[in-house]
Amino acid sequence: MRWNGRTLFALVLVSMMASSLLTLAVVNSNAAAVGQTAMASSNGLFAIGNGQEYPKEFAKLKDAYEIIKGRYVHNVESDQLVQGAIQGMISSLDDPYSDYMDAKAAEEFNSSLHSSFQGIGAEVSMQNGRVTVVSPIKGSPAELAGIRPNDVIISVNGESLDGLDLQKAVLKIRGPKGSKATLKIARPGVSEPLTLVVTRDDIPIETVHVTSFTKNNKKIGRIEISQFASETAKDFGTELAKLEKEGIQGLIIDVRGNPGGYLTAVKHIGEMLVPNKGVIVKIAYGDKADKQDEIRSTAVKKKPYPIILLADNGSASASEILAGALRDSAGYKIIGEKTFGKGTVQDTVEMDDKSQIKLTIAKWLTPKGEWIHEKGIQPDIKVEQPEYFKAAQLPADKVLSFDMNSTDVKNLQLILTGLKYTPVRTDGYFDAKTVDAVKRFQTAKKLPVTGKVDAATAKALQDQLITVLREPANDAQLQKALEVISTQK
Fold it and tell me: Integer distance in angstroms from the first to the last C-alpha of the chain?
């Protein structure tokens, strides 16, 4: 069973996968020949010439097909109608996680599962008819440009995404390395649309990153998991063994901004961390939760050091499974923010022409039986990052100057605050103190001291902010985790 992060992962790179929990039967769309006579039967089916029976509702579909083919003013390819019918059935489910991919999109999707791809590095879903960001991949062009979870992409390079299905929208967002995607973004809580320019790049599958810290004379390891890809569990195990050999006295697992991945990766990582053969995740089928499967750990002993998990609202799907397993079955704490809230399972079935249907077939529950869908998992210790962590990219196509009042100016003031050039005001009005803060920054960077933010100043501000964001000392959630774990035994 293939378990997807939450949408089409042609944009990002991994889908969530589970071992064969369910097999779906798919009707071959080529089985019925055009023009054959349909015959109703007494058992609620109808036959098409060759005697093969289909549900009686298919007779209406066949009639619509023949009316369009026979009477529509323009010639229309049969394949186009079949593709449209499938897409229409999937759309009628009103499920952002069920999807249909034609052969080309499916090929791109599959190729992105085990290699790098080129794009902006963000997972998107179709929610309420709008292309919505689930999470940018940590370190990706999307994250560096300031894209955040729940951002709605309105247009790409001036082309509106309204009315497009997810596949067509993604094709506009993706592109070759080095090309630019100018995205108009609607952000919850922000009155004006934002314009962000993202330079597309190779998005590799390097999912495990390790750092070490010393706090209160204790050596603490941190393993960041950016996605759960095919090699993630193996890499995690290798790096964990190295940290244990170095004598760590605590471990922080960081899944912030992790949009999901293979269930098998979560299972294998859970087996390393969840003691007493505890439950990692439960799978429930149908509307009733009485039919469930459990995935359990094979580990017996608990690790001899404390563990904390870092999560935020970009932690989704597989990340939430790991969070639930560590909390419910191992008693470890979660620090950060509420997770995204994606608790459904998708199965991907390939059709004869290599197209694929991705369909929600189950929901997953935490070990204690909680369905976190659209609710997320609340942290044990809530810690929000400083406001400047939420600053968006500054525009490169206009100059910000005194007496302006806009969302762009508000972002400028957040950035200046994060860089310690405190402008006092942060409400979006470009006052004299903001001018002074800009001048001080320009002086420090040996830029023309104008008090105005042109393209050169905007880039310098953005580059300096990225440096600040990457500094562990400025990461409030990480620092809290280090503080808490260093006091545990």
Answer: 40
Domain borders along the chain are: 116-203, 208-345+360-386, 390-472
Please state the CATH superfamily assignment of the domain spanning residues 208-345+360-386 in this structure.
2-enoyl-CoA Hydratase; Chain A, domain 1 (3.90.226.10)
The catalytic residue positions are 317, 342, 346
What is the rounded CA–CA span in Å between residue 265 and residue 288? 27
SS3 (DSSP) at 415: helix
Q: Are 99 and 166 in contact (CB under 8 A)?
A: yes
Note the pTM of the prediction, 2 decimals.
0.77
Task: For residue range 242-261, list pLDDT tens digits in order.
Answer: 999 999 999 999 999 898 88
- The Cα–Cα gap between 468 and 386 comes to 12
Question: Which distant-in-sequence residues (6+ apart) come within 8 Å of 75 by Cβ?
Answer: none
Tens digits of per-residue pLDDT, 286-299? 776 567 899 999 99
Alpha-carbon gap, residue 51 to 286, rounded angstroms: 32
Instruction: Tell me if 396 sits within 8 A of 364, measured CB to CB.
Output: no
Output Rg (C-alpha) for the chain, integer angstroms: 25
Instruction: Out of 2.30.42.10, 3.60.10.10, 3.90.1330.10, 2.20.28.120, select the CATH number for domain 116-203.
Output: 2.30.42.10
Domain 390-472: assigned CATH number: 1.10.101.10
Strands 250-254 and 307-311, sheet pairing = parallel
